[in-house]
């Protein structure tokens, strides 16, 4: 089997990757490359118990770069690797699409943990993974395009939060033409990820209600901004970028947004980015009371609403989600 066809069919399991698997019951079928016959053969079936002797053999195969899994099984594998995201920075056998999927799984789980228990421990675990994502994007900002390709249309607050982070991060890297600090990238990702955290205090029946909302329910939803900010204060989060995402993602350029009816000049760049990303991701997701918009229709809807959304950002959104081209660093920076 040629090296090219081997890499197309199989994914190499390094010693570090092997350590991310359950020790006795690997979650995927294991394959070993036979040097004598130049063939890859199944060595162990997924979920079956490995004896200590075979564990040692498997470790030896991994050390000699002879251990593989089927590339089509990477989604199973991704759920395990998502718990050790640091390996993404040291392994180079993944495609960008596979890495993006691993990041989605990791942040879906981290956000779910934090929303269920918004305390310091889950926050630190989530922030650690965000730092890994920031380092990954910092090394090559073009990678954000693969992140935006992973957005999911099945709605939940968790999924919406991860979708918004991926889309907003891409918009931020584009609109700043790559001129940002790595530390700022961490705060941007965290702010986008947590922009709607206050929604965990809004009753589910209110969020899923179709049609006109009574004033009490509308107030309950609008109060999620203040609720999210209060959570950040309890966690002693003082980053202006993170707080601006929470405070400003429902503000609009014409002053029609909430909670402070800010106009364009009073909305920060990250506030404008989060507003576009949040609205777009809400439009393309399924909800109990409406069908999702197609991605092109959602982009066009936002682009036409120049009174509310920054036109430079909606044009960049079109580049990302419709044209699918390379990142364009010549776009005008939003002031």
From TrEMBL:
Taxonomy of the source species: Bacteria, Pseudomonadati, Thermodesulfobacteriota, Desulfovibrionia, Desulfovibrionales
Chain ranges of the HD-GYP domain: 136-333
Name used for this protein in its record: HD family phosphohydrolase
Highest taxon, organism lineage: Bacteria
Origin species: Pseudodesulfovibrio portus
Coiled coil location: none
Pfam families assigned: HD_5
């Amino acid at each position: 089997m040629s090296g090219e066809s081997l890499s197309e069919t199989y994914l190499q399991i390094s010693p570090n990757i092997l350590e991310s698997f359950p020790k006795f019951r690997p979650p995927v079928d294991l394959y070993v490359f036979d040097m004598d016959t130049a063939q890859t053969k199944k060595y162990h079936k997924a979920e079956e118990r490995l004896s200590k002797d075979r564990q040692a053999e498997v470790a030896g195969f991994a050390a000699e770069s002879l251990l593989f899994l089927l590339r089509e099984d990477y989604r199973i594998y991704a759920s395990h690797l998502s718990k050790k995201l640091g390996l993404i920075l040291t392994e180079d056998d993944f495609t960008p699409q596979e890495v993006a999927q691993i990041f989605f799984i990791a942040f879906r789980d981290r956000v779910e943990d934090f929303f269920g228990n918004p305390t310091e421990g889950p926050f630190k675990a989530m922030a650690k993974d965000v730092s890994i994502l920031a380092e990954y994007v910092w090394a090559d900002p073009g990678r954000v395009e693969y992140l935006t390709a992973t957005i999911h249309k099945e709605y939940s607050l968790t999924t919406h939060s991860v979708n918004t982070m991926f889309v907003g991060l891409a918009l931020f890297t584009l609109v700043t033409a790559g001129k940002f600090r790595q530390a700022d990238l961490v705060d941007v990702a965290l702010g986008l990820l947590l922009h709607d955290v206050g929604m965990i205090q809004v009753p589910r029946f209110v969020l899923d209600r179709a049609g006109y909302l009574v004033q009490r329910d509308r107030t309950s939803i609008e109060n999620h901004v203040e609720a999210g900010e209060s959570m950040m204060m309890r966690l002693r989060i003082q980053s202006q970028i993170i707080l601006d995402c929470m405070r400003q993602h429902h503000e609009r350029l014409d002053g029609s947004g909430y909670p402070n009816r800010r106009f364009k000049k009073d909305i920060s760049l990250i506030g404008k980015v989060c507003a576009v990303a949040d609205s777009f991701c809400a439009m393309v997701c399924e909800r109990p009371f409406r069908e999702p918009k197609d991605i092109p229709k959602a982009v066009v809807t936002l682009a036409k609403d120049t009174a509310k959304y920054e036109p430079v950002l909606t044009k960049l959104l079109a580049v990302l989600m419709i044209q699918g081209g390379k990142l364009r660093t010549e776009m005008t920076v939003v002031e």
